[in-house]
Amino acid sequence: MLENKKIILGVCGGIAAYKAVELLRLLTKAGADVHVIMTRAAQEFLTPLTFQTLSSNPVHTDLFNLIAEREIGHISLADMADLFIIAPATANIIGKIAAGIADDMLTTTVMATKAPVLIAPAMNVNMFTNPIYQENESKLQRMGYLFEAPVSGSLACGWEGQGKLAAPEAIFEGAIAALTKKDLTGRTILITAGPTREEIDPVRFISNHSSGKMGYALARAAHLRGARVLLISGPTALAKPDGVRVIKVASALEMQHEVMTRVTECDVVIKAAAVADYRPVERKNTKIKKNDESVTMELVKNPDILADLGKMIQRPFLVGFAAETDALLENALKKLDAKNLDMLVANDVSQADAGFNVDNNRALLLFRDGSSCECDLMSKDQLAGTILDQVVARLEQG
Ligand code: C5P
């Protein structure tokens, strides 16, 4: 996700400095090349060796280190950065940046960078609410500095209130957002995800193996790229993606209702849900008893939501999914045509390493104009990015 991204991580002196270690781990795991700058006070809490070992890069502490000045220097550090993160950021560093003071390695490098700067403050609640601090933060926000707000809780100093460093995962998400091109700003995207449940009686239902991971990955990626995202989700165990409006449904009929009432506000509809094709003709109001040796259940076809969208005269850009176990290309092409889609993402779900219920996927993308693109095994997050790249390219063509 962050492959080839160069990130400078500034660490200030605060008890939350240990959480910067976890943040560094998340960043490097996502492929980022992280260069750490520690203030003098930060070194009272942790040693440079910890960050050096985990980043595999030398840690910068001293503005006037002759070797570093010759080989890297604060200007080349500032220039190479795709993103600058300061976590934890003290009231002191924020005050200095706001006042234009550059008197150590960290403040000098921040001053010299043209990269986006993401600041994650951590301090005592009274320092945080102090109007001087608040004015400094507002000034930096007006200038385009990004902030990951501290959270409320019991603070190391004994006080209760806002001032705790945001969770490393939240700062990590902020970093991804800061590095993501906002090429879906102004667009509304509706995404369906997960399985549907077709009830048989109060305790039983028909469903399938869909985990919802692909649809949720798409929702998260679309939000990061600036879209307004409506996620219509069947039952899943997944957490709500940040900034996404989630509408929970159970059956195909409920999903149909939610999609159809919202479709006119959408520029794009991506149907990643595994909608049950059939439902029981009748849902029993009481539990079916196991008295008989065999039972027969009559099923009726569910509406094909995607095919119905394809029939609309004024319709959004339509992306369908096809999970196939055989004759992938042939079946996928038929679906693209029959459902009148702009794009189809076809997966071969007969292979255990991709598709249903796992984190990876391999797909064939087919387009209305006859072109296609093959995506080898990759994470669902990466595939979501590739699918949205294609959507953006085609929306821009008009
Ligand atoms: O025809 P098939 O069910 O394989 O097509 C899959 C695509 O159609 C998926 O995008 C799925 O979300 C959508 N679909 C639908 N309504 C149905 C069945 C499938 O929207 N009842």
How is this structure best summarized?
The protein has 398 residues and is α/β, with parallel strands linked by helices. Helices cover 36% and strands 25% of the residues.
CATH H level, superfamily name of the largest domain = CoaB-like
Bound molecules: cytidine-5'-monophosphate
Q: What integer value in Å does the Rg equal?
A: 26 Å
Q: Which CATH architecture of the largest domain would you pick?
A: 3-Layer(aba) Sandwich
Can you give a write-up of this model?
- The protein has 398 residues and is of the alpha/beta class.
- The strands form 5 sheets. The protein has an 8-stranded mixed β-sheet with strand order 12-11-8-13-16-17-18-19, sandwiched between helices. Strands 2-1-3-4-5 form a 5-stranded parallel β-sheet, sandwiched between helices. Strands 6-7 form a two-stranded antiparallel ribbon.
- The mean pLDDT is 93.
- The protein has helices at 17-29, 42-45, 48-55, 66-71, 73-80, 91-99, 105-112, 125-129, 131-142, 168-179, 213-224, 252-262, 305-310, 328-338, 380-397, and strands at residues 6-11, 33-38, 83-89, 117-121, 146-147, 151-154, 160-164, 188-193, 198-201, 204-206, 228-233, 245-248, 268-271, 278-280, 299-301, 317-324, 343-348, 360-367, 372-379.
- The protein has 2 domains: 6-179, Rossmann fold; 188-397, Rossmann fold, CATH 3.40.50.10300.
- Cytidine-5'-monophosphate binds at residues 192, 252, 271, 273, 275, 277, 302, 304-306, 320-322, 335.
